[in-house]
Design goal:
This protein has 347 residues and is of the alpha/beta class. The protein has two domains: 77 residues, Immunoglobulins (Immunoglobulin-like, Sandwich); 260 residues, Protein tyrosine phosphatase superfamily (Protein-Tyrosine Phosphatase, Chain A), CATH 3.90.190. The protein is built from 13 helices and twelve strands.
């Protein structure tokens, strides 16, 4: 079986199409304004497993219809070029149960919208987002209010209250004191001999997402909102779009029947998207401390490792057998809600 193509915008208006094998299969590529658009503009015919296409400036988010002799499917960029943001992603295109696929342009995940520039906000307006699910705390919202995309858009604040002690200290600090307070908290734990392995701290947080009552309430409400037929398109986000958003995105895709390997794959895109942001963050930390143990601990909070989200998935499946059964038993999600989500978000 040939693997599907993926597309990325490698520079303004140039799109690179690639698939994970070298099999030759002739494909016709068409440009679309919307995933369900019946009108398409022919762009190219090729058998190459990797090729690029230049298209002119557009006033809409492009999608691409790929037609083969025996099949056809639509693809789009997964990480979107929202100026000022580094981790705004479409969760469409993943293979789900019964041969279906997650629809494009309906389910998004991101870092907070505070950093979006005017151009970034203008781009977001094109996505027709109706619902924002914000996992941040009151302190985070006060310091980093989201930019307004549309006055008619509904925003729900659903704080899972599942942070490690160090991060809680950071979130409650003023903007200018965030980094130093986080470092001081870690140094305090180190001096008391209570500083545990940094990876273990993060892994425990991912177990907490599945088990803690506040987290279950927040993520249960997220699913109920997402199952509302009036909700799409939906974006869920926290601060960096990694931990809280990573767990929430995993639940949504898991309910839709996306396999574990793709749940992990989707999570790990954060690593690629945040490389430059993490480099800059660590350079700032190095100006405040030269303690390698402290710096390693700091990096653990911005690192993205596959075992983090895999721990959440395994915590759920080992006890409940499946993500679907977990959300029904622990998050009070009904079979009707799950069926509605599948009707809404799969094709």
């Amino acid at each position: 079986m040939c693997k599907k193509y993926e597309v990325n915008q490698i520079k303004n208006n140039r799109f690179l199409f690639q698939k994970g094998d070298t099999s030759e299969k002739e494909v016709e590529v068409y440009l679309k304004k919307h995933p369900e658009d019946k009108q398409q503009e022919f762009l190219l015919k090729t058998s190459e497993p990797s090729f690029s296409i230049d298209i002119g400036p557009l006033d809409y988010r492009p999608y691409f219809l790929l037609k083969f002799a025996d099949e056809a499917y639509t693809i789009g960029e997964r990480t979107l070029p929202v100026e000022g943001m580094n981790n705004f992603r479409d969760m469409g295109g993943y293979e789900a149960e019964n041969g279906k696929t997650v629809k494009w342009g309906m389910l998004y995940r991101s870092d907070h919208i505070y950093n979006a520039t005017d151009a970034g906000v203008a781009y977001l307006k094109k996505l027709n987002i109706r619902t924002i699910i914000d996992y941040r705390s009151d302190d985070e919202l006060m310091k980093y209010p989201n930019k307004t995309i549309d006055e008619d858009m509904k925003t729900y604040q659903l704080d899972p209250v599942a942070h490690a002690a160090e991060l809680a200290a950071q979130f409650t600090s003023s903007k200018k004191d965030e980094d130093i307070n986080l470092i001081n908290k870690i140094i305090e734990q180190k001096e008391k001999g209570t500083l545990v392995n940094q990876a273990d701290v993060v892994l425990e947080q991912y177990r907490t997402f599945a088990n803690k009552e506040n987290s279950k309430q927040a993520f249960g409400e997220m699913l109920r909102i997402t199952a509302n037929p009036d909700a799409p398109a939906v974006v869920q986000h926290c601060r960096g779009g990694k931990d809280r958003t990573g767990f929430g995105a995993m639940l949504v895709l898991g309910i839709l029947g996306v396999k574990k390997e793709d749940l992990v794959r989707d999570y790990m895109l954060t690593e690629k998207n945040r490389q430059e942001r993490n480099r800059v963050k660590m350079e700032g930390y190095k100006k405040l401390t030269d303690d390698k143990e402290v710096l390693d601990h700091l990096y653990s909070f911005i690192d993205t490792r596959s075992e983090f989200i895999a721990t959440s998935i395994d915590t759920i499946t080992q006890k409940y057998g499946s993500i679907e059964r977990y959300v029904m038993e622990e998050l009070e999600i009904t079979r009707a809600m799950i069926d509605t989500m599948k009707d809404m978000y799969l094709e």
